[in-house]
Structure formats: C-alpha cells, structure tokens
Write a structure and sequence with these properties.
Elements (H helix, E strand, L loop, with lengths): L14 E3 L53 E3 L10 H8 L8 E2 L4 E6 L4 E5 L2 H5 L3 H4 L10 H12 L8 E7 L6 E9 L2 E8 L8 H14 L3 H16 L3 E7 L5 E8 L10 E2 L6 H9 L2 E4 L7 E4 L21 H10 L3 E9 L2 E10 L7 H46 L7 H9 L6 E6 L2 E6 L4 H13 L6 E3 L2 H4 L10 E10 L4 E8 L1 E7 L22 E8 L5 H28 L3 H31 L4 H25 L6 E2 H10 L9 E5 L1 E4 L1 H21 L8 E8 L3 E9 L12 H14 L2 E7 L2 E9 L2 E3 L24 E5 L3 H13 L4 E5 L2 H9 L4 E7 L1 E2 L2 E2 L1 H9 L4 E5 L10 H5 L1 E4 L4 H16 L3 H6 L1
Parallel strand pairs: 24-26, 31-32, 31-33, 33-36, 36-37
Antiparallel strand pairs: 1-2, 3-13, 4-5, 4-8, 5-13, 6-7, 7-8, 9-10, 9-15, 10-11, 12-14, 14-15, 16-17, 16-20, 18-19, 19-20, 21-22, 23-25, 25-30, 26-27, 27-29, 28-29, 34-35
Helix pairs in contact: 5-6, 5-9, 6-9, 9-10, 9-13, 13-14, 14-15, 14-19, 15-17, 16-17, 17-18, 20-21
Length: 936
C-alpha cells in the first residue's frame, strides 16, 4: 500500500465550497463583454456590450479573466454580494466581438476578391492610409503590384485550416518602411494585420529557438522542461516575470515554472480557479495561440465600420492586435503591470497550459520574435507530450505484465474461483493505491483502505446508474458519488472498473484523502457594485486554503493502464460467468459481457499487436520475417478462437467447418491433406465454444509436430454416431515418428479436461510411432448425412506487388496510429506513391479537399466512437474504391446506406487481406494484366 506523498500535511479539518460569496465572472484572451466601469476615455461610449469584471491575479493578465471562489476553511459567505447567475451569465457571453484593436498594429478585413470590408481607425497613423479611403476599395488599387504579388502568393498556399501566414520586414509601399504582416482566414474574409517593423532585441530569434532544442530534448521530466521554457522566454522577450501555467483536470491551474527579474513578485506554486478561463475562452486559446498587451495605457482604435454587411459585429477571434477589456486593463494597473503576453501550450490538440509574461513598464515584442516563441511553445508541447506518453507506456507495460500473470492464475486454477487475493496483489504492482475491492461471480474481496461489501455494491450501482459502463475515476468520492458512500472513512478518490453491471461485478481502486494547503493568488472574493456589476480585486497577496476531501488525481497513463487491465478481469469474469450461466443465468446475460466488452477490446488488442509485428519486421532479415509471419498466424488463430466465443449467431455450426477453419489458420498449409470420413456433426453455440479450443490445440500440434507439418503426412477425421452422441476420431499418418511426451503441457491438459468437464464426454489418446490418434465421445451432438463432399473453397493466391498495383495517392483513415502506419506501409508495397493518414473524419475530408486525387482508401469504421460514413459518402460520390475495416463485420443487411454497399475487411487485417480485397472486388482496376507484366 502507498504512503501519503512527501510534503502533504494530513490532518483533520472542514471546508465548505463558498457559493455564492465572492464568485466573479469569466473572461479570456478575447474579453469583450464585461461588466464594470470603463476606466479610460480612449474607449468610445456607449460600449456595444455589457461588461463583467475579472481577476488580474491569474497568470493570464494579458486579458480579462474570470474568477470563482475556491473551497474555503470555516468561511462565512458575505451577504448580498455576487450570485451564481451573474457568473453563469459571464461564462455564456460572446467574447470574440470586441470591435477595437490595440495601438501597436492596424487591421484590414478583406474579402477573397481583395476588397477592404473593414479597417481599424489607426490605419492612417500606421500605414498612412485613412480607413475611410480604404473601405470598399480593392487592395490592388492601394498597394504596389510587387506587394500584392507577394500577398497573393502567400494566400494561394493557405489551406482551409492553416494557422495563418506570416511575413516579416516587408517593404509594403516600396518607400523603405517595413512591416511585419499577419494574414488569417476566417471563412469568406481574410484578417490582414500590419505592425511597423522594430529593431529586433533578438537579432535572429529563430536561431535562438533552434539552439534551445537540444536543451529541451535532454530534459528528464516536466519540471525541468518548464524551467527551461520560463528561462528561454524570459531571455527572448525581456519581460520581468515569465510563468509556466498548467491546467489541472478540472481546468483550475497552477504555476509550475517561473523566471523573475527585478522586484517582480513570485507566483510559483500558486493556484487559480477554473472560472479564470471559461470554456469559450479555452476554445479561443486553442485557435489563437499568442496574445500581447504592449501598453495598458495606450489608446485603442475602433473597427470602421463596426459591423459586417449583415449587421453582425466583426469576429476578431483570430486577430493578433485585438484590443483588451478595459476592466482587465484596470486589473493590470491594480497589480502594477503595464505589459503582458501569453502563449498557449497545446499537447495533442488540447490546452495543457500557458506561458504567461508580465512587465511593470510598457513593453512591445515584435511579431517575428513572438512567432519564434510560438514555435518554441510548440516544441515544448511536443516534449511534454513525449514524456507523458513515456509514462503511459511504462504503466501500460506494467499492466500487460499483470495481465499475463492474472491470465496464468486464470488458466492454471482448478477451482471455480481464481485467487482474488493474488489478483489484487498483481493490481497493486501497477497502481499506486491505498485499497482495492473486487466482486467476482458473487465473491467479494477487499484489502487495505476499502469499504464493506454493501458499500462496494452501492458504489458500483451508482456508477451503473449514471450510465458509466467503462472505467470511471474521481479524486473526490464524496462529491462524485454523493449519497452513495458514507463519509468519514478517509477515502478520497476511486477508480472503478465495471465488468458486469447487472451482477455488480467489478474492481474499485481507492486512494486516501489528503489534506493539504493550497496557495491561491489572493483571496478570490469580490463585491457587487450598486449598479449590479462585479468589482475587480485590488489585492493579489498570497491566500492559503486548507483543503480536504480530495485524493491524488488519476493520471492519463493510469487510466490507459486500467483499460488494459480490464481485459484480464473480463477473462476471469468470462470463466465465472460460464459456470454461473450454466446454473442460473440466461444466455443473453453472458452475451452482454462477451459481445459488448470482450469482442471490442480484444479485437483492438489483436489488431494493434498484429500491426506492430508486421511493421517491425518490415525490411528485416528473412529469418525475422518468417518468425513474424508465424507469430501473426498464431495471433490470427487466437483471434478466431475468441470470435467463436463472441459469435452472435444462434444457429448450429458444422464440426467439419470448424476443423477446416483451424487448419486454414496456418495459411492454408495442410488443408488438402485433411480427409473427412463419415457423417457431419452440428454443434450448438455452447458445444462450439468448448470444442474450438480443443480443435485449435490438436491442429497446432499437427502443424508443428505431426502429420500437417512440413515433413508431410495426412490427417483423417472420422465422425460417426455412437450412444446418443458422436464419436470424433482424429488419426494422423505419414508424419514424423511419434513418441509419448514426458510431461503434460497446458494444451494437452486443456483437451483432457474440456471433453469430460465441459461436454460430459470421454477421451482416449494413442501415441503410436506411426502417428498420433485421439477418440472423443461427445454426447448430445446431432448428426446429419453427408451426401457429397463439400465444394472446395476457392483459394486466393498470395498478393504481391506484381499482381496488384495501386498508383498515385492512397488514404488511410484510422485512429490507432500503429494500425494506420502498418496499413500505409502495405499500400506503399502495392505501389501507392503517397499515403495520407487521417485520424478522424474531419481530417480525412480536409485531405480530400486538397484536390489531389485519391486512388484507394482504407477506412476504420469506428473512429473514437464516431462513424467514418461521411468519408465513405465522399469517396463513393467521387468513384474512389475503398474498403471498411472493423473488429466486428456486420451481417449482410444489418447496416444500410453507403456502408451497407461497401467492401468490409475484418480486424486484425494484414497486407494480404488488403490485397485480397483489391483482387476480389476491384480487380478490374488494380490487377496487373499478364501482358503488362511481360511487357514490363
């Protein structure tokens, strides 16, 4: 069991979440609708928006922020101050429509025909062109031809989702005046912004960033990365204070890195509530990555005219010169800050945190340096994500090891119930927890800090009642499961792994409650002004909160590892459910576990591992490639065995076909050497489930050591009626000399126990030197006469680059990168000159919008819970052939529309599977004609 983390003070106290006292409203890097007085005459009145106050004590002082009161200790709520409705109203406001720009640059809104639709009022002082003379004019009539040629060239290469175009030091008017220019596309218009070129404080900021890359790559952890980042941005920009601010899981934040100069106050370790940056603000931070306020006292300039032709305010979401809320400017003055800048840190597309900068005097950082810092932030984000993925990989590896150990316990246990204490110990090797409780097949086991059996059931019921069928986690059990669990037991958080919701089977990991001192940047309480608006805070001194009820949060790596672990737990539940189903449950309940859970997750595992094996062996020595092929073949056999357990069909199945399928699992080797004698036996789903693994073991031994191996030989399978059942006689001849094994392996033990225990039959074996034999009597099987030998299935020849040829660009739409890379490599082997990988339908449609023709595509049907049907519709309309991949291929007629007409391949698929689909369904397009081969 784990101990409390070092430095955390554990003691008893009480806190209350102080609402509604002191809760203030939200704003962002684009705050424009705020309540409060307008502190400077430079803003025209009346303001077209309501104004709400915000907090400038957060590290996002470049823009107006929001604030909510965090949990307080023994605090009394002030009466008649701020209501939650006021806070919610601020969080819903449209913050991208401010209508003004800052003084350090000017803005033109230009249509795609280069007609100026709007211009900022300071175009005259910046460009020497008054806005009244610019609006409704073609930019080609205003700017020199060489400048327009440059702008046109840049815009032509701008994609639909580009982050924008940057030009540095352009002599716009050919008179020696140089400008830095930013161009962003916003639907039907371009935002074109000009900043007068200033002498660089850093002559070559790009070179400085390049020199910092080795330092980032050598950093050992997140802490060192944040320290390097704060130092680098401080050196590049000259700000007094540079902070690295990280978002927590609830979107509150904490300063995790800081560099100071002069007398700047430190905020290292200080926390800020989630309402500082409401959801719409976080969304804009993901679109506009860098923001600067050069001088809080500088005038701002309105957009002329202030609206679009249809009367809507001009959207300045992507503007880099967009002005800042006057209330936020007052906050900055209260704090003694005259200039600020912030840069978003996006890790895998999500807002990880920010780089925030302050200075006590006006301070301008030129656009070229800001662009270099933005690039540096992207490199920092990459390194942060890389270290996070390393941590996740370490935990996943530990979970896989636990999976193997739990599987061994499951396979070797002769008892009806595996050793739950041993399972618990394996889980503890993976997760840092204080207690574990589990329910398996009606058996309860708990260790460490864990609840009673009834309390466990209440928690699992609460998770199921809220519609959670996957892993559920919380770092505050009392808040997340209010009323489902009694307080006072010292448990702070839990990670629940539901397995069978109806029976209450599952595992819950617990972490103890930790009491700690949180340091906030000033008391978050606010007052309400007589006119109903919220007043800004004037104090930013350290404010401490004693907080309890929370545990250490669960990391993304731990959540990923818990999903891996769930596969092992499902295997245990599958065995227990088999016993219970036979006695007291229905077949449909068993299908709920197997089909809804095991099929999806096991097939994803099979697909990923198979793709990793194929990709890893690509280009390797022949021996390695042969080994990889054998491994993939065995993996495919295991997958087919699991498919039997998850087959939704209730119809009986042919015993002969079951044997043919297992032989065919080895690439067709030996199928022609199998002879069937006698009649045919039809298997029920339960009989088929048991016999699948038995036949798999017999076939594997015959291929590896017996008559179906490379040494040659034949297999005779005789099926005859006997004693209200069927006798299956397995006889191998012509293979290697057989000797009696010295020990009974797992496979032999499985065969010996399955027939009598699962099917109530008997078994006899013979290890004669001329060939292995086995007779199995299986009662309850139905027989039918075989009048003629079944038609041999047509075998598709192995596909090679000489048989199939794809030309041009291919598309792979797959959310699992390993599988996607493997598919791309397979398409390149088949001749594709370029392969585009897209992880979502949106990314795939964007790739198709580029206009480069696609000759073939492979689509994953399920993209993180979303269908790839929109991509399939686009491809079908363009007459582009494609196949759809899925772990569970639907039955004919089960699905309609374009996917119902599509060609499906089953995961895990290989290069051969893609090639066979091409040959079988698109041969007129991709099979190389024999004449062409000879001519070549």
């Amino acid at each position: 069991m784990r101990k409390p983390p070092h430095g955390l003070r554990v003691r008893s106290c009480r806190w209350t979440h102080a609402t509604p006292n002191g809760v203030s409203c939200a704003s962002t890097s684009q705050p424009d609708q705020l309540t409060g007085p307008v502190p400077t005459a430079s803003w025209p009145r009346p303001m077209p928006f309501s104004i709400c106050s915000t907090r400038s004590g957060s590290p996002f002082l470049k823009d107006a922020m929001a604030e909510s009161t965090p949990p307080m200790t023994e605090a009394e709520a002030p009466q008649g101050t701020v209501t939650q409705e006021m806070v919610d109203a601020c969080a819903q406001e449209q913050i991208q429509f401010l209508g003004h720009v800052q003084d350090f640059g000017c803005l033109l809104v230009v249509t795609t025909q280069w007609v100026v639709r709007n211009a900022s009022a300071n175009c005259g002082s910046t460009l020497g062109l008054e806005p009244e003379a610019l609006v409704a004019q073609r930019l080609t009539d205003v700017l020199p031809a060489s400048t327009m040629h440059t702008l046109r060239g840049k815009v032509q290469v701008m994609g639909r989702n580009d982050q924008g175009i940057r030009l540095f030091g352009l002599d716009v008017f050919e008179d020696g005046r140089r400008f830095d220019i930013a161009i962003h596309r916003d639907g039907p218009v371009f935002l074109v912004e000009f900043e007068r070129k200033q002498p660089d404080r850093v002559r070559d900021p790009g070179a400085v960033v390049q020199a910092l890359i080795p330092r980032l790559t050598r950093a050992v952890d997140h802490e060192e990365l944040c320290t390097i980042a704060a130092d680098a941005v401080w050196a590049l920009t000259g700000f007094d204070r540079v902070m690295v601010y990280r978002f927590e899981s609830d979107f509150s934040g904490v300063v995790v890195g800081e560099t100071l100069s002069g007398g700047a106050d430190s905020y290292m370790g200080h926390r800020f509530p989630a309402s500082d940056i409401p959801p719409q603000a976080r969304a804009l931070y993901k679109r506009n990555l860098i923001r600067i306020i050069a001088d809080v006292d500088a005038p701002v300039h309105p957009i002329v005219p202030p609206h679009t032709p249809d009367g809507a305010p001009t959207d300045l979401s992507l503007s880099i010169t967009r002005a800042v809320s006057p209330i936020h400017l007052q906050y900055l003055r209260n704090m003694g800050v005259r200039a600020s800048m912030s840069v978003s840190i996006l890790v895998e597309g999500e807002l990880w945190g920010m780089l925030a900068c302050h200075r006590e005097q006006p301070h301008y950082v030129d656009y070229e340096t800001r662009s270099a810092i933005e690039l540096f932030a992207q490199l920092l984000a990459y390194e942060l994500g890389l270290r996070t993925r390393r941590d996740e990989s370490r935990l996943s590896a530990a979970a896989l090891e636990a999976h193997d150990q739990i599987s061994i316990m499951f396979e070797s246990s002769a008892a009806a119930l595996p050793d739950l204490a041993g399972v618990s110990q394996e889980i503890e090797r993976v997760f840092d927890v204080d207690g574990i409780a589990m329910m398996m097949g009606g058996h309860y086991h708990a260790t460490g800090l864990a609840p009673s059996r009834d309390e466990f059931g209440a928690l699992m019921h609460h998770v199921a009642r809220n519609g959670t069928s996957r892993v559920f986690n919380t770092d505050n059990l009392g808040r997340a499961c209010a009323g489902a669990f009694p307080s006072g037991q010292g448990i702070g958080g839990m990670l629940a792994i539901p397995i069978h919701s109806r029976r209450g089977d599952g595992v819950i990991l617990f972490r103890r409650e930790l009491t700690r001192d949180l340091i906030w940047a000033g008391p978050p309480s606010k007052e309400r002004l007589p006119d109903g608006r919220l007043s800004p805070r004037a104090s930013f001194s350290t404010w401490r909160e004693e907080r309890r009820g929370f545990s250490e949060s669960w990391t993304a790596g731990e959540l990923a590892a818990s999903e891996v672990l769930r596969v092992s737990l499902l295997e245990i539940t599958l065995r227990l459910s088999t016993d219970l189903d036979r006695r007291r449950t229905s077949h449909s309940e068993r299908q709920e576990i197997v089909i809804a859970e095991l099929t999806h997750r096991l097939r994803n595992v099979y697909s990923t591992v198979s793709a990793a094996i194929e990709g890893g062996a690509d280009g390797a020595e022949p021996a390695v490639q042969a080994y990889a092929a054998e491994a993939r073949s065995r993996l495919a056999a295991m997958k087919r065995a699991s498919d039997v357990l998850t087959d939704r069909s209730r119809d009986s199945t042919s015993l002969r076909q079951l044997i043919r399928d297992e032989v065919r699992a080895y690439g067709g080797r030996g199928e022609e050497r199998v002879e069937f004698v006698g009649g045919e036996a039809m298997l029920s789903p339960r009989q088929r489930s048991a016999l699948t693994l038995v036949i798999h073991e017999l076939t594997t031994n015959a291929v590896k050591y017996g008559a179906l191996g490379p040494a040659g030989g034949r297999l005779e399978v005789r099926i005859t009626a006997r004693d209200n059942g069927v006798e299956l006689h397995w006889r191998e001849r012509g293979g290697p000399v057989v000797t009696t094994p010295q020990r009974v392996g797992f496979g032999s033990a499985l065969v010996q126990h399955t027939i009598p225990q699962e099917l109530g039959g008997t078994i006899e074996t013979s290890f004669a030197p001329d060939g292995f034999e086995m007779s199995m009597h299986i009662p309850g099987l139905s027989m039918r006469r075989v009048d003629q030998a079944p038609a041999a299935q047509s075998q598709i020849a192995p596909v090679t680059a000489d048989d199939i040829r794809i030309s041009g660009r291919a598309l792979v739409v797959e959310d699992n990168m390993i599988i996607a890379m493997n598919a791309a490599q397979s398409l390149r082997r088949l001749g594709a000159e370029d392969v585009v990988i897209a992880g979502s339908s949106e990314a795939a449609l964007s790739a198709l919008d580029e206009g480069i023709p696609v000759s073939f595509a492979v689509l994953d049907q399920d993209l993180n819970g979303l269908s790839s049907e929109p991509v399939a519709i686009r491809l079908e309309s363009a007459d582009v052939p494609f196949v759809v991949a899925s772990g569970l291929v639907p039955d004919p007629g089960e699905i309609g529309g374009v996917l119902g007409r599509a060609v499906w391949i089953e995961k895990p698929y290989s290069s051969e599977a893609i090639g066979q689909a091409l040959r079988r369904h698109f041969g007129d397009r991709f099979i190389v004609k024999e004449q062409a081969k000879r001519g070549h």
